[in-house]
Amino acid sequence: MPFLIGDDMIGRRDRRPSRYAIDFAPRTIFDSERFADLFKRVKDGVLEKREAAAKKEEKANKDALKKNPNARVNWHHKQFLEHWWWFSYPREALVQLLGGLDRYIACVRVTKRPIFEFVSSKIHPNDALQVFPFEDDYSFGILQSGLHWKWFTARCSTLKADPRYTSNTVFDTFPWPQQPTQNDVKKVAKAAVALRKLRTKLMAENGLTLRELYRSAEQPGTNPLKDAQEALDEVVADAYGMKARDRHNPLVYFLRLNAEVSELESKKIKVLGPGLPPVAKGREAFVTDDCIEP
Fold first, then answer.
1. What is the pTM of this model?
2. Which of 154, 149, 159 minimizes the C-alpha distance to 109?
3. How far apart are alpha carbons 163 and 157 in whole angstroms?
4. What is the biggest distance separating any 2 CA atoms in the chain, rounded to whole angstroms?
5. Residue 176 DSSP class
6. According to the model, what pLDDT value does residue 161 have?
7. pLDDT tens digit string along 5-20?
8. Is the model's pLDDT at 112 over the cut of 90?
9. Cα–Cα distance for residue pair 193/187, rounded to 1 Å
10. What three-state secondary structure class fits 197?
11. How far is 65 from 68, CA to CA, in rounded Å?
12. Is the pLDDT of residue 49 over 80?
């Protein structure tokens, strides 16, 4: 299957996967052996290493428990060996979820500025990508907005001093619009589509990657990408019902909204979570088909 890494998505001009991966999960060993050539390749390259790692882990655990019977030990490699023909962490639930969509949203996990893109569900993501199981343009618009970027900047963790998009600190705590109208949803979706179309056009005309395109927008001076981003940010702020003072200091607004949503949830009162809201009638109107293809 095509296998997308972060550098493919933002570092290649066509944004397409540069490699393939053999993913047998959740097949049994018997079902996997039917693909004889592929199975042999995995067996030759993986099995011996998995066995060695499991033995090394077992010895280390025995030594640790001998010194301290209450020592905490890990059995990861023993578990990996049980299904050695699978990825170490096959993420079955995620793969199954993405399989029910035509496309999903992804961004590079370690990044100074999250750049989101739609990816075909025929492509499996590498762990370097943060994945969001949404296929609608409204959700893309919320995530690609400058408001979400500010929340990311304030809430992200770091990896070797580089900002890192984490689901628990960034996404799980980010409150989505609670009372968007049908018109709000339409405007956000329309601005999101316009932004992606412009990105594709600018990259093609100037021979740029997504990374290079956004770096150009970080420089002083006029830039059509900046204009498209500002247009998206404006309608996203409208969807949140932000007043002028909120737009000048969105983090204060989001902290307040986060507290309000949390309180409602504690009282078992339903709130609007991530994704296309119920007010958006006619789902097909909010799901276009552009995405990175195999």
1. 0.92
2. 159
3. 6
4. 67
5. P
6. 76
7. 999 999 999 999 999 9
8. no
9. 10
10. helix
11. 5
12. yes
Q: Which two tokens stand for residue 136?
A: 């609608």
pLDDT at 160 over 80: no
Sheet holding 117-120, edge to edge: 117-120, 103-108, 129-132
DSSP string, 203-225: HHHHT--HHHHHHHHTSSS--HH
Contacts of 188 (CB under 8 A, 6+ apart): 137, 138, 141, 142, 180, 232, 235, 236, 239
Query: How far is residue 32 from each of residues 21, 51, 103, measured CA to CA in Å?
Result: 14, 19, 27
Q: Render 48-95 in DSSP notation, one character per residue.
A: HHHHHHHHHHHHHHHHHHHH-TT-----HHHHHHHTTTS-SS--HHHH
Residue owning tokens 């204009």: 227
> pLDDT tens digit string along 174-205?
999 999 999 999 999 999 999 999 999 999 99
Q: How far apart are CA 172 and CA 157, in angstroms?
A: 13
84 close to 50: Cβ distance less than 8 angstroms? yes
Query: Is there a contact between 43 and 49 (Cβ–Cβ < 8 Å)?
Result: no
Task: Specify the pLDDT at position 159.
Answer: 73
- Upstream peptide bond of 180 is cis (omega within 30 degrees of 0): no
